[in-house]
């Protein structure tokens, strides 16, 4: 029996586009670039030879076009793993659910997804300007804990080692972090030898969850010292951002290939930041477009 998805579960707009993204199935390419900032969509698309569609709704801006003969869709996700839940489920529905019959398609259509973002660096080898690929992500966001199969795709020994190291108990810094790998094939193809491969914490906020203390004190004032010192089987935690865990996790559960690469715009160790990063991120965008 094919799975059927009623209108309350998969909401389709009157024009045949998917609820939040406002994208129609025929507009989706197999290669997808995700960015947080809607303004970054135009920067990616400025390299396209042609554009076949452009649509915008809330923080989700989408353009599909061609780069050196490759059909690519670029979508902005806004900030946070809650938005990645929406974007990934709607992209997967566009690819793998028939919008006329509301049934799962017979043949699975895999997508290749690369997130190009910004991040905070946590180690001496991640100064401002470094490109860091998230080989593993530690999700502080809790999203994957709501999906069956979470334990089959996560690195459980890594999770236990991290939790022991942080010695959090009760509801301190809950929900429980999950540890998930990006697609190794994509990382090898995109990172090559000129990007840092690391472990990324995808935080559920920019301030407290990333150990930034303004007027309200942190639950665990030693959080970032412990994170910077953590080491497991040769892995050290390299950076903070806010989406890579849900992207890697949902992609694994859905059967797609995904990875995140971010440019460091703040180094938390030496307390420096760069807000004028538009040119450097364009170098990263061109590199990803060439390698995807
Ligand atoms: C926070 O400033 C935002 O920047 C990073 C974080 O993941 C978060 O979304 O990524 P983007 O530059 O892609 O938005
Ligand atoms: N994005 C983040 O999430 N954290 C930083 O420190 C910089 C960019």
If you had to describe this structure to a student in words, what would you say it looks like?
This protein has helices at residues 38-45, 81-96, 150-153, 156-166, 184-191, 223-229, 244-254, 278-291, and strands at residues 31-35, 50-57, 60-67, 70-76, 97-98, 103-104, 112-121, 131-139, 178-181, 196-202, 231-232, 235-241, 257-267, 272-273. With 292 residues, the protein is of the alpha/beta class. The protein has a single domain (25-291), classed as 3-Layer(aba) Sandwich (Rossmann fold). A five-stranded mixed β-barrel has the order 7-12-10-8-13, surrounded by four helices. Helix 2 packs parallel to helix 7 (244-254). The longest helix has 16 residues, at 81-96. The chain is globular. The structure holds 1-O-phosphono-alpha-D-ribofuranose and uracil (URA). Uracil (URA) binds next to strand 7, strand 12 and strand 13. 1-O-phosphono-alpha-D-ribofuranose (R1P) binds at residues 35-37, 79, 117-118, 206, 241-243. One of its GO terms (biological process) is purine nucleoside catabolic process. Residues 32-269 form the Nucleoside phosphorylase domain. One of its GO terms (cellular component) is cytosol. This is Uridine phosphorylase.
Read across the widest sheet, the strand sequence of neighbours is 7-12-10-8-13
The low-confidence runs, each spanning 5 or more residues with pLDDT under 50, are none
What percent of the residues sit in helical stretches (DSSP H or I)?
25-40%
**Series of secondary-structure elements, N-terminal to C-terminal:** EHEEEHEEEEHHEHEHEEHEEH
CATH superfamily: Nucleoside phosphorylase domain
Give the second-level CATH assignment, the architecture: 3-Layer(aba) Sandwich
**Rounded to an integer, what's the Rg over CA atoms?**
19 Å
**Mean pLDDT across residues:** 97
**Number of E-type strands:** 14
Main sheet? 5 strands, mixed, barrel
